[in-house]
Every structure is written in C-alpha cells, then in structure tokens.
Specification:
The protein is mostly helical and about 425 residues long. It has helices at about 5-20, 30-65, 70-90, 95-105, 155-160, 175-185, 215-235, 245-250, 250-280, 295-310, 330-335, 335-365, 365-370, 375-400, 415, and strands at about 140-145, 145-150, 315, 320-325. It is about 60% helix and about 5% strand. Helix 1 (about 5-20) packs parallel to helix 10, helix 1 packs antiparallel against helix 12 (about 335-365) and helix 11 runs antiparallel to helix 12 (about 335-365). The longest helix is centred in the first third of the chain and has 35 residues, at about 30-65.
C-alpha cells in the first residue's frame, strides 16, 4: 500500500496540475516553448535520479540489516521513485534517444523465473522463452543461445547481459520492475486482494528463506546500481548541452512534433491501449503495469499528469519547486482559443477519472481487482479513464492540425483498434 503522506502529496500535485491556470503571452515563441520543455524534462529526470539514489540507500540498508522495517522502507522508496519517473514517460515517444533507452529502466511485463524462485503455478517452461525459469539467483551458470554464461558473480554487467537475452523482451533483468519483483515477490492473488509478499528473510543470510540470500542481495544491488547510472545518463542527455536537448531544439517545428507525439502516443496506444484496455479486455492481472506492488493505479495517474504537464508547461518538483514557462497551451491559444480550452478541458476530464481510480485503489480495491471479470463497478472506473485518454487524443490531433505540423504518427494499439484480435 502507498503511504498516506505520499498519496496526499500526489493528490496535491494533481490538484495543482488540474487547475490549468495558464496566462497567455503575446506572440509565444515556439523556440521558447521547446526550451521550457527541455528544462522540465531535465528536472523530471533529475528528480527520478534523486529518488533512485534514495532507493539505492534503502536497498543498502535492507541488505545490511534485513528486517520488516528495512524492507518496508525500501518498498516505500521504490513507490516514491515511481512518481517523478512516470511523469517523464511523455518524453519517450517522439524522442528517439529516450525510446532507445527506456527499455533498460521500465521494461515490462517480465518473466520473473529468469531472476528468482517462483510459485509452482508459474510453470516450468515456455515455448517463447528458453530462460523462463533460468533462476539466475540459484544458478551460477546459465545457457543463453546455446552458450554457457558464467553467473557466479552477480554484477551490473551480468544483468546487462541477461536483459532481453535471447532477443526475448520478457527477459527483464534491469530497471524498476526487476527491483519491484525483488522487493515484493510474485503477486499470487490473481484478481483477489493482496500484493506480493516476499519476506525480509529472503535477504537474511543468517536465517535465509528460499536459499541464496547473498546472491539475491547481489542481484537487487546490481539492479539498483544500474537504475541510478541509467537515470544519470538520461539526466545528462537533457542538460542544456545534452544530446536529447540538442536533438529536440534543432528545429522548433520538429520540437513541437516531439511534444505532441509524446502526448498522443502515451495517451492512446501505450496507456489507454497496451497498459489499460488490454488488461481490461482479458481481465488479466498479468497485464498490470506495477503488478508485484499493486501500485498500478498510481503509476497510471502520474502518466496522465505527465501528459498534461507537457501541454501546460507546469511541473512541481520533488522538493516542492514549481516550474512554469512558455507552453504549448499558450501557442495553441494564440491560434485558436476555443481549441486550447477544449484541450485543457479534455486533459482535466482524464485527470478527474484517474483521480477517481486512484481513490478507489487507495480505499476500495487495487487495480488488478478493478479489471477482474464480473467487477462491473471496477471495470467502469478503469474504462472511464481509458475513455478520457482516447478522447483527449482526438483533441491532440486537432492541435497538430491547428499548428500546421503536417502528418504526425501516433502509436496505436490492437486492443483499441481491433479488440477481437487480442484473443487470437
């Protein structure tokens, strides 16, 4: 569960983001809009880095002295680290540097049997993945593409070798979700109540449960080390002279395309489609984004906040600093005030629906329960958020046309565009 103080902070941020009180500036400069967009990107990745470093310290404490207290603190640090990162996901689409990098830090879903022990219900093999139950923590040698790989020492370099090994995307060995699995363990509750429940003794070398507690700690530390270094890389890329900043700033028109591609693709294909509608159609908890921790409703909410932020130019940093500057909203308002009002209204409608979902997740049931078969009320809450995302994408497309940006390709999703195909 998410701590009350964290949720209050999140809802306060949401309330500010939902206000959309953006004063219009005369003759907004597209280059200035892009400059502020890159400044906010740098801030979001820097906040993600700062919170990842705090998570790393909490993991050090857990490994050094395993207890209920240190495990709880590490889980809380992971939840806090997700808040700024999810708000940065709007930068993934439209920015090739981010898209090429993103799989190292946020790849999902994962075949957890690659990493550690799993429940018997998981099965023993997969036609799609030879490493389905490789269990690197328990085995000092594994075979990848027919070749023996030395796993006697679990290091960041080994995890990089394992990540997407055999060209299988479900072989996730790095990033937030590998860490999440190692902190929570499998969620064996299906669409019933409860998250993963890994015991702290899985890291206690004196009273070890499930074996290999030393290697489990090594894997967790290596994954955390990589998360920090990967976030440092992206923070540097969005610095004033960083590669991502230079790429998006080279042509203001192309920069606007990047902003709107990020907004539209995350809204429609990724969030509404792959992360939400697919799981709702299948009523499948395996399609839940933060599936081990039951943090999915919070994760989706902050994605929606990030989409709105890309339009309004507003962001509240983890230290409370408020960022505001030349925005896409101002640029659109100068072209078409009614369209700007429409866009902000659609973003607010989505945020309101996400807020209802987050509140239900806090007070009533987790996201995997909401999408369960026969849960009409829970299904409806999730569908309302999906509807908001789909509807705001239509306004994003109108913004693209109003700014005369030409043809902009947004990510699609079979679960939205051809729902029957997901059953094949």
């Amino acid at each position: 569960m998410i701590r009350k103080s964290m949720l209050r902070a999140g809802l306060a941020l949401l309330a500010v983001s939902a206000a959309f009180a953006v004063p219009a500036h005369a003759a907004t400069d597209a280059a200035a809009v892009i400059k502020h967009y890159t400044d906010v990107a740098h801030a979001k990745y820097e906040d993600s880095l700062t919170t990842a470093k705090k998570l790393d310290k909490a993991i050090d404490a857990l490994i050094a002295k395993p207890s209920e207290k240190t495990l709880k603190a590490a889980r809380a640090a992971w939840l806090a680290a997700r808040i700024p990162y999810q708000q940065s996901e709007v930068y993934r689409f439209g920015n090739p540097i981010v898209d090429d990098w993103e799989g190292k830090v946020n790849a999902w879903p994962l075949d957890e049997g690659l990493i550690d022990y799993v429940d018997a219900s998981y099965g023993t093999e997969s036609d799609e993945n030879a490493l389905y139950t490789a269990n690197v923590i328990a085995n000092k040698t594994i075979k990848i593409d027919g070749k023996d790989v030395d796993a006697s020492k679990i290091t960041p370099e080994l995890l990089q070798t394992l990540h997407e090994a055999g060209h299988v995307e479900a072989n996730v060995a790095t990033g937030y979700h590998a860490i999440e699995f190692l902190l929570w363990g499998q969620d064996l509750n299906g669409t019933g109540p409860g998250a993963g429940n890994r015991p702290y003794t899985d890291y206690d070398q004196k009273n070890c449960t499930h074996g290999n507690c030393d290697r489990r700690g090594d894997f967790l530390k290596a994954a955390s080390t990589l998360l920090v270094s990967d976030l440092q890389e992206m923070t540097d890329d969005w610095a004033p002279e960083g590669e991502a900043t230079k790429h998006v700033s080279a042509d203001p028109k192309a920069g606007l395309v990047a902003i709107l591609t990020g907004m539209g693709s995350l809204s429609y294909g990724e969030l509404a489609g792959e992360r939400m509608k697919l799981g709702l159609i299948l009523h499948d908890p395996e399609e839940e984004h933060d599936c081990f921790s039951d943090n999915t409703y919070n994760s989706h909410l902050y994605d929606a906040i990030g989409i709105a932020s890309a339009y309004t130019g507003d962001y509240i940093r983890t230290d409370g600093t408020k960022m505001h500057g030349p925005s896409l909203s101002e640029l659109v308002a100068e072209k078409d005030k009614a369209l700007d009002k429409e866009m902000k209204g659609k973003l607010k409608t989505t945020l309101d629906a996400m807020r209802v979902m987050a509140d239900r997740g806090k007070r009533v049931e987790a996201y995997d329960q909401m999408i369960g078969e026969g849960n009409k009320k829970g299904n409806a809450v999730v569908q309302a958020a999906i509807d908001g995302l789909v509807d705001q994408t239509k306004s994003i497309e109108r913004v693209i046309a109003a700014l005369d940006l030409g043809t902009v390709k947004l990510e699609g999703s079979a679960s939205l565009d051809n729902p029957s195909s997901v059953f094949k």
